[in-house]
Design goal:
The complex is a heterodimer. Chain A is built from 13 helices and seven strands. By secondary structure, chain A is of the alpha/beta class. Chain B is an alpha/beta fold. Chain B has a seven-stranded mixed β-sheet, with helices on both faces. A five-stranded mixed β-sheet of chain B has the order 9-11-10-13-14, with helices on both faces. Classes of the chains: A alpha/beta, B alpha/beta. The structure holds thiamine diphosphate (TPP) and magnesium ion (MG).
């Protein structure tokens, strides 16, 4: 525990934001969850390859710090809207991986009772209003949730995650404008991973940084390195404070990268192997966070090992749970189309 | 001399048609999301960008409303765009330009303009893509005067009808079932067209007419083959175009068989089956009917993710067999 005591004696004053703001225990929890996202994605990918999961899926490997950093200052009853690349957001907001796996396996124990799958994963109980199959679809919905918060005086803050590609949908522009005009407690988080499917932001988007769009809607536009947990969390912290104070929305552009292809059918013809390699070996968000935690004395190798083991077990148990869960009966196809009434 | 006929997949047939259209007419160009180097979400455009360049195979931003509108504007002013929606479900984002603009422009302007735009919509369920990527929305657009709406069911028709669509002076909406893309069939080389607005009798029979669309045509043919062994002789009419509908072919078939079963994947209620049934009820074929008309369509629910639920949500071959058999035997 020599390193840990060193951390205590060191002044934290000069450390990056999260190391001043959160306890060692909380930060270890963050690392745990980042691993949980990574291993969940890998587990889902393997199950897909083995034919246990059908359809398609969009993995967020490489974007873990972004999801975790944004959700860090959120309270349990704050809400998010998520995207097709939403597994990380779901876990970051507090979902259990076993119920996520169950959803991917199409089982009744899944978060959407097997009706939604990967692209519609949600955890309404924990404030995740759902991933979305429609690019940009969740952005106005988040504004609506923020309007509810304001009208019902619940104090909830709403985060809308979306990708760089979504910033070219009309819904994005209409939603930001309304949020700004009505000073709603919403945070727009653009996870810019450089590409909307195969199309780079340079080829699709007129501004260099998506955060520049904020100027058109009179809200702060903040750019963060989305692979550095502390940077993301700090920006989120400020945006949440602003939202809670009734000062209105913020647009955060979290610059990151997806290691995997867009979906399961991507041949990666629009980017080079070298580019992918570079991000994987030099800017992996988990590696970066881990080395900061080590450097600042919050964790040692044994602590990291313990986290990895615990996560591996949680993932294995989650997959077993999903396998053992029942499928919906085909007589129940018509359920949930309308609200059941007594 | 007859053109060489090869086996091509439905996707290859469409790709070939687009290449021929671009070779023949420099005003023809392609627009859509990820249709360039990615080759399209279903690899329909494939390597066309390498052959025709990024100026004629244009990757749009993820902007369906704007993209469709740009295609409409280009068509209005002399170009011949073929616009690909990545999934037909995203037509919902572009409805304004399709329904309010493209469909009505010629009418509103008293015939002063035409909008020769072609839009392609990968449609349908069966891929585990869940509720927002599996819909069959062709009847929505079929409800709009000014649009032509087609659903080719074979590689041959996919090529010929796309070329007919490009040659057509008005907006043509092509619904392509995603499960058909890999289907192989004979396709002649070179230019030919298959007329829009003409149904095709894909199998002649005496006991029952099945009017089917898109992927249900093949399912109906498979069902007919089984029923034949039971002594039931099914006629299968491939509707091919839902607007303008080829009423006469259906009427003549029903007059011959005296029984009608409509099979389509879209939600059953307020759909193509209702239109075909009503059309027959209004026609001289009504007097020939020996049994009530039957519709087999999709369940009254969004498409579920779970694969077993997904399967039972749309008509399958055994469903068609049972419905056809019951209809012929008078079971209600
Ligand atoms: C309205 C709409 N258009 C297109 C698609 C198909 N599609 C799904 S994800 C995607 C790319 C999205 O890019 P981005 O917003 O940057 O998110 P990322 O995948 O990079 O996380 C596309 C084109 C869709 N699902 N919805
Ligand atoms: Mg992106």
């Amino acid at each position: 525990m020599a390193t840990a005591s060193k951390a205590v004696t060191n002044s934290r004053a000069n450390l990056p934001f999260v190391y001043r703001q959160y306890s060692a225990e909380q930060l270890k929890q963050v690392l745990h969850k980042m691993y949980l996202v990574r291993r969940f994605e890998e587990g889902a990918e393997e199950c897909y390859t083995r034919g246990l999961i059908h359809g398609t899926m969009h993995l967020s490997i490489g974007q873990e710090a972004s999801a975790m950093g944004i959700c860090m200052p959120l309270a349990e009853d704050d809400q998010i809207t998520s995207t097709h690349r939403g597994h990380g957001h779901c876990i970051a907001k507090g979902a259990e991986v076993k119920r996520m796996f169950a959803e991917f396996f199409g089982k009744t124990t899944g978060y959407c009772k097997g009706r939604g799958g990967s692209m519609h994963i949600a955890d309404v109980g924990k404030g995740n209003l759902g991933a979305n199959g429609i690019v940009g679809g969740g952005i106005p919905i988040a504004v609506g949730a923020a309007l509810s918060s304001k009208m019902m005086k619940t104090g909830k803050v709403v985060v809308s995650f979306f990708g760089d590609g979504a910033n070219n949908e009309g819904a994005f522009h209409e939603a930001l404008n309304m949020a700004a005009v009505w000073k709603l407690p919403v945070i727009f988080v653009c996870e810019n991973n450089g590409y909307g499917m195969s199309t780079s932001t340079a080829r699709s988007t007129a501004v260099k940084n998506i955060a520049e769009r904020a100027a058109a809607y009179s809200m702060p536009g903040v750019i963060v390195n989305g692979n550095i947990f502390s940077e993301v969390a700090e920006a989120s912290h400020q945006a949440v404070a602003r939202a809670r104070a009734g000062e209105g929305p913020t647009l955060i552009e979290s610059k990151t990268y997806r290691h995997r292809g867009h979906s399961k059918s991507d041949r990666n013809r629009y980017r080079t192997k070298e580019e992918i390699e570079d991000w994987m070996s030099n800017r992996d968000p988990i590696t970066l966070f881990e080395s900061e935690l080590r450097e600042f004395g919050f964790i040692d190798d044994k602590g990291i090992e313990a986290i990895r083991d615990a996560v591996a077990q949680e993932i294995a148990e989650g997959i077993e749970f999903a396998k053992a869960s029942p499928s919906p009966d085909i007589s129940e196809t018509g359920n949930y189309v309308y609200t059941e009434q007594a | 001399m007859d053109a060489m006929v090869r086996e091509l997949s439905y996707a290859q047939a469409i790709q070939e048609a687009m290449a021929i259209a671009m070779d023949m007419d420099e005003r023809v160009f392609l627009m859509g999301e990820d249709i360039g180097v990615y080759g399209g979400a279903f690899q329909v455009t494939g390597d066309l960008v390498e052959r025709y360049g990024a100026d004629r195979v244009i990757d749009t931003p993820i902007s369906e409303l704007g993209g469709a509108g740009v295609a409409v504007g280009a068509a209005l002013t002399g170009m011949r765009p073929i616009f690909e929606f990545q999934f037909s479900d995203f037509a919902t984002l572009a409805m304004e330009q399709i329904v309010n603009q493209a469909a009505k422009m010629r009418f509103m302007l008293g015939g002063e303009v035409s909008v020769p735009v072609v839009m392609r919509f990968p449609a349908g369920s069966g891929t585990g893509a869940a509720a927002q990527h599996s819909q069959s929305l062709e009847a929505w657009l079929g409800h709009v005067p000014g649009l032509k709406v087609i659903q080719p069911a074979t590689p041959y028709d996919a090529k010929g009808m796309l070329l007919a669509a490009v040659a057509d002076p008005d907006p043509v909406m092509i619904f392509e079932h995603k499960l058909l893309y890999k289907m192989k069939g004979p396709v002649p080389e070179g230019y030919y067209t298959v007329p829009i607005g003409k149904a095709d009798i894909r199998r002649e029979g005496r006991d029952l007419t099945i009017v089917a669309t898109s992927i249900m045509v093949q399912k109906a043919l498979d069902a007919a083959a089984v029923l034949e062994s039971e002594g039931i002789d099914v006629e299968v009419v491939d509707l091919r175009t839902i607007r303008p509908m080829d009423k006469q072919t259906v009427i003549d078939s029903v007059k011959k068989t005296s029984r009608l079963l409509c099979v389509y994947e879209a939600v059953k209620t307020l759909g193509i089956g209702a239109e075909v049934s009503a059309m027959i009820a209004e026609s001289e074929a009504f007097d020939y009917l020996d049994a009530p008309i039957v519709r087999l369509g999709g369940a009254e629910t969004p498409i579920p993710y779970n694969p077993e639920l997904e399967k039972v949500t749309v008509p399958q071959i055994p469903d068609i067999i049972t419905a056809a058999r019951d209809l012929v035997k008078g079971v209600r």
